[in-house]
Amino acid sequence: MSCAPPPPILRLHPPSSISPFSSPRRPHLSPRTCPWRLAAAREMPWPHVLTVAGSDSSAGAGIQADVKACAALGAYCSSVITAVTAQNTAGVQGVHLVPEELIREQLQSVLSDMSVDVVIPSAGIIKILCESLQKFPVKALVVDPVMVSTSGDSLSDPSTLTYYRDGLFAMADIVTPNVKEASKLLGGVSLHTIADMRDAAESIYKFGPRYVLVKGGDMPDSSEAIDVFYDGKEFVEFRGHRIKTRNTHGTGCTLASSIAAELAKGSSMLNAVQVAKNFVESALHHSKDLVIGNGPQGPFDHLFRLKCPPYNIGSQQRFNPDSLFLYAVTDSRMNKRWGHSIEDAVKAAIEGGATIVQLREKDIESRPFLEAAKACMEICRSSGVPLLINDRVDIALACNADGVHVGQSDISAREVRELLGPGKIIGVSCKTPAQAEQAWRDGADYLGCGGVFPTTTKANNPTLGFEGLKAVCLASKLPVVAIGGINATNAGSVMELDFPNLKGVAVVSALFDRECVSSETRNLRSILASVRCLA
Ligand SMILES: Cc1ncc(COP(=O)(O)OP(=O)(O)O)c(N)n1
Ligand SMILES: Cc1nc(C(=O)O)sc1CCOP(=O)(O)O
Ligand SMILES: [Mg+2]
């Protein structure tokens, strides 16, 4: 089915950075007094994490670790300093708290001027923080309850416990204690096994956060670094290699800020935790022989990727939202009409430049479907194109597909996640902001939003138009792919909408209800590329 020359190689232009600097004497800004703020945010969206934490003079942990981790993962990180600590690779020598009034001032300065997505707060400033967040709401809170540093030093007084348990946790999206901190939070219970960590996660969940991650990196006698994730219903174990190195100072702060960076970029919580774990593990691995300082515990290199081109070495992100650029969704009736097998149709779509494929086979028996899905998996794997299965989790499991796409009347993303585990991609069809919010809560990785235009491919499908698509895009940080009636004539106008999280278009008939699937795909891709570039 090769009917035309191959597509050109395209390049992604990263969005240009916003200038973060403002004079300390500049007055506080609000959207109302400063109309250019909204315009600038729309034109140059940039994932933004605000860390509210202490300074570590050795720069391995605290504010310094957060800024470096966010930078390494492509998020901007602003900082409100709550304490100045004197520490080095031997331990913590001194702590000086910043006066509350100055913390309030810093919060006001950042939040009134910048569009912040995720905040990593510290204990002791809950009242001030609550006031600020009421005025300037953010997308998520990641709470790393720093009470015991990796070196074993106690970093907070007992009243901090109360602050965490009775205030901050209820506001948090995720709380990330290590085993020692979980034990402290729960009145000194001893945690020795995975079962103990699960119990601890359940107990901490009752303080009010949406997710808990109990980190097992400091668990003695374990050859693996196992973290236990709990969402109030199910547990997920994240297993990583334990890297033998003295350079583990700041791993807790780094994990939390990496989660925050991924959330700010639009990831689901599970994906954010997985990427953050991979990042910390890679950083420890690359820094294992680094010698900075003479004490027993050294820092590691957050920017290790700069030294090992290509720059994405070590990144094991399971889902790249850019893959939604040109999403080919198959249809067996159309294939039959043109005498194409599913495999040939998928091969041709990939040849034409499809960046992700979904098998949407509504009237095919399970066994031939599975056979075709296995063959398509081979085709997609060899081209580096993710393959998702529409609706059928059983088929996805049996052919080890990259993920599943479900709609509002299918089983929920949360249930799909339970069946597929954290490593797979889950897409959810959403027509409203409320559905988008629920999909994010359920752990979806992307949203399919439509019908943007009328379609005959899906019966009785309401048309949302650009307004409906806009409402869903603006309501969510998850990447969105537009679907419904999209073809060579109107695809450019969809991409021109230029919402930051609108990553591409999903197309059925304009690719597959055609004789030459590869040239239709190639043509559509070049139309999309003329509006927006892709790496
Ligand atoms: C990318 C993408 N978006 C939306 C859909 C529609 O899914 P659903 O609402 O479950 O409808 P069916 O496709 O199952 O008829 C999709 N498949 N892909
Ligand atoms: C499968 C599907 N889902 C839709 C939604 O709105 O969620 S529209 C649709 C069909 C898209 O087919 P075509 O590209 O041929 O219009
Ligand atoms: Mg469905």
Automatic annotation (TrEMBL):
GO MF, any single term: phosphomethylpyrimidine kinase activity
Subcellular location as annotated: Plastid, Chloroplast
Record's compositionally biased regions (Low complexity): 10-24
Gene3D superfamilies, per the entry: 3.40.1190.20, Aldolase class I
Cofactor: Mg(2+)
Region called Disordered, residue ranges: 1-30
Residues of the Thiamine phosphate synthase/TenI domain: 326-511
Listed GO CC annotations: chloroplast
Main subcellular location of this protein, as a coarse class: plastid
Pathway of action: Cofactor biosynthesis; thiamine diphosphate biosynthesis; thiamine phosphate from 4-amino-2-methyl-5-diphosphomethylpyrimidine and 4-methyl-5-(2-phosphoethyl)-thiazole: step 1/1; Cofactor biosynthesis; thiamine diphosphate biosynthesis; 4-amino-2-methyl-5-diphosphomethylpyrimidine from 5-amino-1-(5-phospho-D-ribosyl)imidazole: step 2/3
Catalytic activity: 2-(2-carboxy-4-methylthiazol-5-yl)ethyl phosphate + 4-amino-2-methyl-5-(diphosphooxymethyl)pyrimidine + 2 H(+) = thiamine phosphate + CO2 + diphosphate; 2-[(2R,5Z)-2-carboxy-4-methylthiazol-5(2H)-ylidene]ethyl phosphate + 4-amino-2-methyl-5-(diphosphooxymethyl)pyrimidine + 2 H(+) = thiamine phosphate + CO2 + diphosphate; 4-amino-5-hydroxymethyl-2-methylpyrimidine + ATP = 4-amino-2-methyl-5-(phosphooxymethyl)pyrimidine + ADP + H(+); 4-methyl-5-(2-phosphooxyethyl)-thiazole + 4-amino-2-methyl-5-(diphosphooxymethyl)pyrimidine + H(+) = thiamine phosphate + diphosphate
Keywords: ATP-binding, Chloroplast, Kinase, Magnesium, Metal-binding, Multifunctional enzyme, Nucleotide-binding, Plastid, Thiamine biosynthesis, Transferase, Transit peptide
UniProt xrefs under InterPro entries: Aldolase_TIM, HMP/HMP-P_kinase_dom, PM/HMP-P_kinase-1, Ribokinase-like, ThiamineP_synth_sf, ThiamineP_synth_TenI, TMP_synthase
Chain ranges of the Pyridoxamine kinase/Phosphomethylpyrimidine kinase domain: 56-296
Transmembrane segments: none
Xref: SUPFAM superfamilies: Ribokinase-like, Thiamin phosphate synthase
Family the UniProt entry places it in: Belongs to the thiamine-phosphate synthase family.
Job description of the protein: Essential for thiamine biosynthesis. Bifunctional enzyme that catalyzes the phosphorylation of hydroxymethylpyrimidine phosphate (HMP-P) to HMP-PP and condenses 4-methyl-5-(beta-hydroxyethyl)thiazole monophosphate (THZ-P) and 2-methyl-4-amino-5-hydroxymethyl pyrimidine pyrophosphate (HMP-PP) to form thiamine monophosphate (TMP).
Name assigned to this protein: Thiamine phosphate synthase
